[in-house]
Amino acid sequence: MTMREIEGVAGWTRLLGGFVILLGLLQGPAAALGSLRGEWGLAVAAVTVGGALLVQRALFASHSTKAITSLGLAAPRPRGVWAALAVCCLVLCAYPLFLLPTGAAFSTYPNALWLALGIFLQGGVAEEIVFRGYLYGHIRRRHSFWRAALISTVPFATAHLYMFTTMAWPIALAALVISVLLSFPFAWLYELGGRTIWAPAIAHAVVQGAVKLLVIDAPSFPLIWMAASVAALWLVFLIRPSADSRF
What we know:
- Helices cover 74% and strands 2% of the residues.
- The protein is mostly helical.
- The protein has one domain (3-238).
- The protein has a two-stranded antiparallel sheet.
- Helix 2 packs parallel to helix 6 and helix 6 (112-140) packs antiparallel against helix 10 (198-213).
- The longest helix has 31 residues, at 3-33.
- The model has no long low-confidence stretch (mean pLDDT 91).
């Protein structure tokens, strides 16, 4: 084995080892606290972001400022944030388009506004710092966008296999496929935002949280919501990065 191959194996081992640690910091507290709708989003985000900074500093970064930047916690480019807000508005149109012809019952989950903040912190910031800021971000430094996005889906999908232990397998399989399909536009939003996590965090929080907090009493709506989310989010590929983006 050549030195380049040894360094490659060591680099992947270090990257995936850090990913496993961060995944535990993300999912462990959420499961222990029962934070299904962001009830403990602040705590989960604090543990995950703090852990990510420590892992990044210990394994890859030479100083704390570099760790913050390399994890995508710097100020975002407006293009990415506006793109995220636009596609979120588009996917939220699924609500009136479903309610008007069906007349289904609609309600909001108790304390929805407070929980929305928790979902943004947990499902948006915490998940995106693990999956885009850390995992995809490191792979992207060595590969083109599509190659990096595709490679990162392998550990990403593996991390979601736990759903088969908590859901009926058809539902778990559908959720896994949707998660993988959404990982590509989330990665593109990361790029549009100047390789920061804020744009995908916004979109991730809306896709994950709206259906939990804005409740439509119809068994078919969650499937419609997932399909609408994929269709709307993939439209971000119509938005090109700025001329000075690092492509």
